[in-house]
Amino acid sequence: MDFNIIRIARTVINVKDLDRSRDFYVNALGFIETECDGEHIYLRGLEEHTHHSLILKESDKLGVHALGYKVEKEEDLDKLAAFFQSKGLKTKWLEEGSQHAVGRALHVHDISGMPLEFFCKMDGAERMIQRYEQYRGARIQRIDHVNCAVPDVEKSYNFFINELGFACSEYTATEDDRIWAAWLHRKQTVHDQAFMNGEGPRLHHIGFWLPDPLALIHCCDVLASLGYAENIERGPGRHGLSNAFFLYLRDPDGYRIELYNGDYLTSDPDFSPVRWDLDDPRRQTFWGHKAPESWFSDTSPFLDIETGEQLPVSNPTLQKIKPEFVL
């Protein structure tokens, strides 16, 4: 490929009540609100130098508009458009000025139907990493990754690795060595994009990087003190996969947010992906405790890049939708 995708850089989701969402994301989790125009809230983490990494768009209809990837050059957008069109996949241009704070952008549906966005330019914002008086809630630093349920993980894996230039850090395999889940990256950490076997395409979660594991614990206290204890779905704990500390939350509209810290460097070209057995109890939680049923069953819908309607989903090719927890 002759284009350069840098990293996952933003997501755009519909929410039903901006004030309710602001209370959760800004007051409880500690996102920086860059601005609000009455229909959108633009949020960023403390170390981010760009305008936003998460847009909350008020709508009666929930769904995810795009998973936004930053590219190196404007020319990369044209090359990506030609590539997706050559595969017969749907594309849509959004010219500069049609989206606030973002330059020209290409929206596409990938091989599984997920809505992806590619852009090069975004307006800047003050980097708040040493503005410690602004550290609140979970002390969110930056967007880290997205995880999506797709009906054929191996198909998505091959497309992202062979066609888009991603690399694999870790993966989960079944007894007959089929890929059940995979963690893929462009930046030099464990993942920008993860896939898991399930009805899809659907969004499983958006992951945000925290400064340290204590920020997860502090966030639990803040959430409980503000009446959000029931929004804690899973954790805190340590993943076997990625070795990272995690906390999974559900926002007021049901979107799953992961607070995440402590994975590792994946820059070396001879790095070998780590294989996990699906039923290894240390895989999902290194300490061995189970994920709740909702973690496997609940996901959020994607929206069509042209119509804005929820995308149809397909059943997974692998019948096993969750591990068998055996100690």
Automatic annotation (TrEMBL):
Ribosomal protein keyword on record: no
Any GO MF annotation of the entry:
ferrous iron binding
List the PROSITE patterns: EXTRADIOL_DIOXYGENAS, VOC
Q: Origin, by domain of life?
A: Bacteria
Q: Which SUPFAM superfamilies match?
A: Glyoxalase/Bleomycin resistance protein/Dihydroxybiphenyl dioxygenase
Output the InterPro entries linked to this UniProt entry. DHPA_dOase_Mn/Fe (IPR011981), Glyas_Bleomycin-R_OHBP_Dase (IPR029068), Glyas_Fos-R_dOase_dom (IPR004360), GlyoxalaseI/FosfomycinResist (IPR050383), VOC_core (IPR037523), Xdiol_ring_cleave_dOase_1/2 (IPR000486)
Q: Which UniProt keywords apply?
A: Aromatic hydrocarbons catabolism, Dioxygenase, Iron, Metal-binding, Oxidoreductase
Name the needed cofactors.
Fe(2+)
Answer yes or no on keyword Oxidoreductase: yes
Q: Show where the VOC domain sits.
A: 7-121, 142-262
Q: Kindly give the PANTHER family that the UniProt entry links to this protein.
A: GLYOXALASE FAMILY PROTEIN
Q: Which family does it belong to?
A: Belongs to the extradiol ring-cleavage dioxygenase family.
Q: What is the official name of this protein in its record?
A: 3,4-dihydroxyphenylacetate 2,3-dioxygenase
Which species does this protein come from? Aneurinibacillus migulanus (Bacillus migulanus)
State the organism's lineage. Answer: Bacteria, Bacillati, Bacillota, Bacilli, Bacillales
